[in-house]
């Protein structure tokens, strides 16, 4: 599906962190705090990420060190293999899909900034953020963005609809082998019926949101990032 | 509060002198007169249990009375009413007996009243929610309780030093700390009683409630440590004693939890092997949980913690292992016991407060304590919440904190502990008792009364009770996986990581060890939800009086068909065409897979081969109901049997058919048609005689019974597995007696119909119809004999006309013809719509023997259609006469069996 090996072998043509050549070398220094080596451009980058994602300074630095440790190719980006190397992720049923969600469309590499953007979906929603920035772009950790992230995991063909087959695939992943295919089928059917309101045999994002309106998504799709 | 109590006290005391006879006076009659007596009064022998029963009865009656008025109970928590009732009753008892009786004894409380409540709360604790908030709960339970105990104790001591407490209260710092430790613990009973009616959001509830359960360990330790320090005398306390005190905190809490977990493990393991003795399953749950409590108590560990952990830990496995019925039994018994205990506790609390000999009043101490517990609780909550909010995903806001502070109710635990104090060692015990009573009453009554308006006024987020949906379940699962994956990516092994880990461990080892294999195989939460939803749909559908075949009322999901293909096709059909009338047939058509056909063939074979006990049932029924003509009936039975035998021999000679069993069956079917009169066209068979049927039925019964027996064992197994609806035409319960009798008679093929397929689902209606007179068994029985004569004649003639009935093959090809069903179907809807009773006005066509049959068949068809949807519970609702045949209908799980 993806050409995975290119990234590893190449010396890394793509500059680290979105065309900031000076910081390319940062990628080679693992566990070195971003701030210690930070020049002016790095700090602007950091500011950008902060603004974009809402992560705090400390969180970004911590995540950066994690990023570099994952980046075995030392090229400033994470490839499919890099993710696969995380042992637990490899055995997580929807692991592949989640890894996929990290990559921007059509690419098989993700840089730190992109990674942070994905991770930002899982920041807990904070009170002060609810009030501020009514007009600004919706923060990545908003409820609807969280839901959209989940929705994308279902929606493989990216037609903004979950079809029955897609639902069935997810079910297959989530449900143990103990349940027979027939049963899975009927579960999928029922699930579809429950959510499908306009009768098109598919779940649109609106329907998806509607089904989950009673669920405390803010909590259930958030993790605590260490400061 | 006490003010209110005092007048009450005064009255009884004044009247006490006049009332000479104590309540037990009846006991004095008990002296038996000399010589043989016709009547003996033995009050003393039953006194103790009788009184217990009486108290519980009084409490329960009071509960009923309270709930007569919705207005009162919506305003006043039940616990308040019970306490007030207790005050009144206590007053009366005091007035009559001149001494306070029936106090809340600490021994009774801790050994009998508390365990059911704790078990109930632990067992039904929403475990996910509990562990999600475990950090907060533990903080409040441990830090909060310690904080409350020490600050309250110290502040009271300060109050005394300041001279605000009367000097007659002789207490040192240690005494006050001891008092602080017992008064500071939030009480699970009180919290549960009040918060259950308030319906705050579940997070808030679980935090307050979890705290009240888990703080027991701290309370116990503090209480014991302080108590022993007081008894030793403060001068003798060594440094090592303090260290030991700290260490004992860990021993008591962890030990208690460990005991609970061990017993949870044992319990789960035991229930794994109860397959053949389902009946003791509920008992095991209670026994082992109680054993956990007593064990912990014996080792002076935290018993509450032990039972909580036991309930929490075993639930998943126990629920998977025990049968559906046992689950219901456990649930209701637990709720009943807990509710009973709670009621009695509050009532006894009220009664105990009346006993003025036990307490001594000191305004300074009482008011000071009240103020301090409220103040320090609030302060503690604010401080801890501030700390917790640094870590919490969803911070607790100010409103939550207000409710949490205000919800810190004290209750019977504090009271029991204070009663346990040794007066010689704690000279101020009486004051402490009075203060505790006031505090308990204040928190339960005043705070209990006001917390509801407060919650409303503050607009605290309420809990929304919504039914789980499949989507929700599935998506939440997905969320969990996503979060676990993200934590992996981030490299931070947080809560989700560990939960994921635990789940895998559980799946790999624990569940396999503790769950019975059949349960483990199908164990899946999503499936569970699906299953439950289906049952719920089905029940509600049936409740609405729906007819399965009339599609308009049919919620598709409620009728899961055996395989997804069928399901989808049905749903599509419904959605598109909206014509539900032929839903049934369509399902059948879609299900024509090879396997299904095979099943169907098998099923039909069995249908033909196995007979329905109906006739016999009826007969025996009539024996009970109509005693006078029992003999006559007997004769008829014999007559029938003879007839049948003759008929059979006749038949076999005539056509060389070896499936003797099938023949009667087919005839039955045809006969039905006859009765119905209109359906014949479909089958194209000539109507056959009814009389024959009757005779056949008698013998056949036996076999079907056998089948039922074997089935029942199987169904038991099935109970545990996912979605199996067992439709039993005969409500087994009613007929059991007969079965046993009939069993001896016939050695019948042991073949159990394989799990019915989708197609078979239909069959029951069809095949089963033949038999039953549903409602008035006596009537039908009367009718039948008369008809038999004519029926018999007809049968013979019809037999001849019967060339070779396509009995064996027909079922497989066209499922309807072989069975009376096909003919019945048209009729069924008619009968269904009308009350079954009207059907007894027999249509003219039925004038022959067919009457009872046809009517009953209509009823049967109705019921059988419903039964698949109804699950086991509903069997009892079926009219006794109905069911002869026993159908296992399995939805969606064909492969399993």
Automatic annotation (TrEMBL), chain A:
EF-hand domain residues are 142-177, 183-218
Q: Which PROSITE patterns match?
A: EF_HAND_1, EF_HAND_2
Q: Where's it mainly located?
A: membrane
Instruction: State the compartments where it is located.
Output: Cell membrane; Cytoplasm; Nucleus
> What keywords would UniProt list here?
Calcium, Cell membrane, Cytoplasm, Lipoprotein, Membrane, Metal-binding, Myristate, Nucleus, Phosphoprotein, Protein transport, Repeat, Transport
Which Gene Ontology CC terms are recorded?
cytoplasm; nucleus; plasma membrane
Q: Does the keyword Nucleus apply?
A: yes
Q: Which CDD domains match?
A: EFh
What InterPro entries would the database entry show?
Calcineurin_B_homologous, EF-hand-dom_pair, EF_Hand_1_Ca_BS, EF_hand_dom
A GO MF label? calcium ion binding
User: What is the name listed in the Swiss-Prot or TrEMBL entry for this protein?
Assistant: Calcineurin B homologous protein 1
Q: Which GO terms describe its biological process?
A: protein transport
Q: Which family does it belong to?
A: Belongs to the calcineurin regulatory subunit family. CHP subfamily.
């Amino acid at each position: 599906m993806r050409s995975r090996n290119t990234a590893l072998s190449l010396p890394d043509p793509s500059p680290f962190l979105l065309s900031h050549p000076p910081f390319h070398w940062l990628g080679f220094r693992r566990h070195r705090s971003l701030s210690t080596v930070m020049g002016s451009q790095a700090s602007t980058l950091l500011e950008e990420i902060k603004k974009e994602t809402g992560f705090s300074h400390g969180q970004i630095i911590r995540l950066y060190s994690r990023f570099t440790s994952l980046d075995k190719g030392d090229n400033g980006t994470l490839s499919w293999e890099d993710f696969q190397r995380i042992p637990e992720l490899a055995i997580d049923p929807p692991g592949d899909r989640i890894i996929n969600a990290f990559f921007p469309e059509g690419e098989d590499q993700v840089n730190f900034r992109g990674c942070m953007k994905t991770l930002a979906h899982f920041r807990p929603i904070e009170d002060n953020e609810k009030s501020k920035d009514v007009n600004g772009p919706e923060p990545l950790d908003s409820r609807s963005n969280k839901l959209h992230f989940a929705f994308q995991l279902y929606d493989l063909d990216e037609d903004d609809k979950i079809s029955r087959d897609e639902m069935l695939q997810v079910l297959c992943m989530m449900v143990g082998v103990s349940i027979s295919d027939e049963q899975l089928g009927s579960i999928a059917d029922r699930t579809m019926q429950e959510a499908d309101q306009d009768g098109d045999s598919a779940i649109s994002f609106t329907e998806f949101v509607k089904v989950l309106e009673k669920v405390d998504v803010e909590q259930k799709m958030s993790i605590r990032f260490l400061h | 509060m006490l003010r209110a109590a005092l007048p009450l006290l005064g009255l009884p005391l004044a009247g006490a002198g006049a009332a000479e006879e104590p309540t037990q006076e009846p006991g004095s009659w008990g002296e038996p007169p000399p010589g043989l007596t016709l009547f003996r009064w033995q009050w003393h022998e039953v006194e103790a249990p009788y009184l217990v029963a009486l108290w519980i009865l009084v409490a329960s009656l009071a509960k009923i009375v309270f709930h007569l008025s919705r207005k009162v109970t919506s305003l006043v928590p039940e616990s308040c009413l019970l306490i007030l009732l207790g005050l009144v009753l206590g007053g009366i008892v005091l007035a009559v007996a001149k001494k306070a009786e029936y106090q809340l004894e600490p021994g009774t409380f801790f050994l009998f009243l508390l365990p059911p409540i704790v078990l109930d709360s632990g067992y039904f604790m929403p475990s996910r929610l509990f562990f999600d908030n475990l950090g907060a709960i533990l903080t409040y339970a441990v830090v909060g309780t310690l904080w409350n105990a020490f600050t309250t104790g110290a502040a009271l001591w300060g109050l005394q030093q300041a001279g605000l407490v009367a000097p007659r209260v002789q207490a040192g710092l240690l005494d006050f700390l001891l008092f602080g430790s017992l008064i500071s613990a939030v009480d699970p009973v009180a919290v549960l009683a009040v918060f259950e009616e308030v319906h705050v959001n579940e997070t808030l509830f679980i935090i307050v409630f979890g705290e009240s359960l888990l703080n027991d360990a701290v309370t116990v330790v503090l209480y014991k440590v302080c108590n022993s320090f007081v008894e030793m005398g403060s001068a003798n306390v060594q440094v090592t004693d303090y260290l030991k005190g700290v260490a004992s905190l860990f021993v008591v809490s962890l030990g208690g939890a460990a005991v609970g977990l061990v017993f949870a493990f044992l319990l789960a393991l035991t229930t794994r092997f109860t397959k053949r003795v389902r009946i003791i399953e509920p008992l095991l749950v209670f026994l082992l949980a109680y054993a956990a409590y007593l064990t912990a108590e014996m080792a002076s560990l935290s018993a509450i913690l032990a039972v909580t952990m036991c309930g929490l830990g075993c639930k998943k496995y126990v629920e998977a292992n025990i049968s559906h019925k046992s689950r219901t039994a456990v649930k209701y018994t637990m709720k009943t016991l807990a509710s009973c205990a709670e009621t009695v506790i509050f009532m006894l609390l009220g009664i105990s407060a009346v006993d003025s000999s036990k307490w001594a009043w000191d305004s300074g101490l009482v008011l000071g304590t009240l103020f301090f517990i409220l103040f320090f609780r609030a302060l503690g909550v604010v401080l801890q919440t501030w700390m917790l909010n640094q870590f919490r995903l969803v911070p607790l806001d100010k409103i939550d904190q207000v409710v949490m502070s205000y919800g810190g109710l004290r209750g019977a635990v504090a009271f029991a502990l204070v009663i346990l104090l040794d007066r010689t060692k704690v000279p101020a015990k009486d004051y402490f008792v009075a203060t505790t009573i006031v505090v308990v009453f204040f928190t339960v009554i005043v705070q209990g009364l006001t917390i509801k308006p407060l919650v409303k006024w503050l607009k605290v987020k309420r809990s929304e009770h919504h039914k789980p949906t499949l989507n929700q379940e599935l998506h939440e699962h997905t969320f969990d996986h996503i979060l676990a994956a993200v934590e992996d990516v981030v490299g931070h092994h947080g809560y989700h990581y560990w939960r994921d880990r635990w789940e895998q461990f559980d799946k790999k080892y624990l569940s396999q060890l503790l769950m019975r294999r059949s349960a483990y195989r199908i164990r899946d939460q999503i499936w569970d939800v699906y299953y439950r939803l289906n049952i719920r749909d089905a029940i509600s559908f049936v409740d609405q009086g729906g007819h399965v075949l009339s599609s308009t009322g049919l919620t598709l999901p409620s009728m899961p068909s055996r395989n997804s293909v069928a399901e989808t096709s049905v749903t599509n059909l419904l959605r598109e065409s909206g014509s539900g009338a032929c839903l049934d047939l369509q399902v059948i058509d879609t299900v024509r897979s090879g396997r299904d056909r095979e099943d169907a063939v098998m099923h039909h074979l069995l249908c033909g081969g196995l007979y329905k006990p109906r006739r016999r049932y009826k007969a025996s029924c009539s024996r009970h109901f109509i005693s006078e003509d029992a003999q006559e009936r007997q004769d008829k039975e014999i007559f029938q049997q003879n007839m049948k035998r003759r008929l059979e021999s006749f038949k076999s000679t005539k056509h060389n058919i070896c499936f003797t069993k099938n023949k009667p069956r087919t005839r039955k079917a045809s006969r039905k048609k006859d009765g119905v009169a209109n359906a014949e066209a479909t089958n194209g068979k000539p109507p056959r005689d009814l009389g024959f049927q009757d005779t056949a039925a008698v013998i056949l019964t036996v076999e079907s019974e056998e089948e039922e027996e074997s089935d029942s064992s199987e169904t038991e197994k099935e109970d545990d597995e996912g979605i199996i609806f067992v439709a039993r035409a005969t409500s087994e319960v009613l007929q059991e007696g007969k079965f046993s009798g009939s069993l001896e008679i016939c050695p019948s093929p042991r073949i159990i119909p394989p799990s019915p397929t989708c197609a078979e689902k239909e069959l029951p209606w069809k095949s089963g119809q033949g038999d039953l007179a549903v409602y008035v068994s006596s009537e039908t029985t009367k009718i039948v004999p008369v008809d038999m004569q004519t029926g018999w004649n007809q049968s013979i003639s019809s037999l001849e006309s019967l060339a070779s009935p396509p009995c064996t093959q027909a079922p497989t090809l066209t499922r309807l013809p072989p069975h009376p069903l096909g003919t019945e179907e048209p009729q069924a809807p008619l009968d269904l719509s009308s009350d079954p009773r009207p059907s007894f006005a027999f249509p003219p066509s039925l004038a022959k023997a067919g009457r009872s049959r046809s009517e009953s068949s209509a009823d049967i068809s109705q019921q059988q259609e419903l039964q698949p949807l109804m699950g086991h519970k509903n069997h009892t609702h079926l009219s006794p006469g109905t069911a002869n045949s026993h159908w296992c209908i399995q939805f969606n799980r064909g492969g399993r069996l």
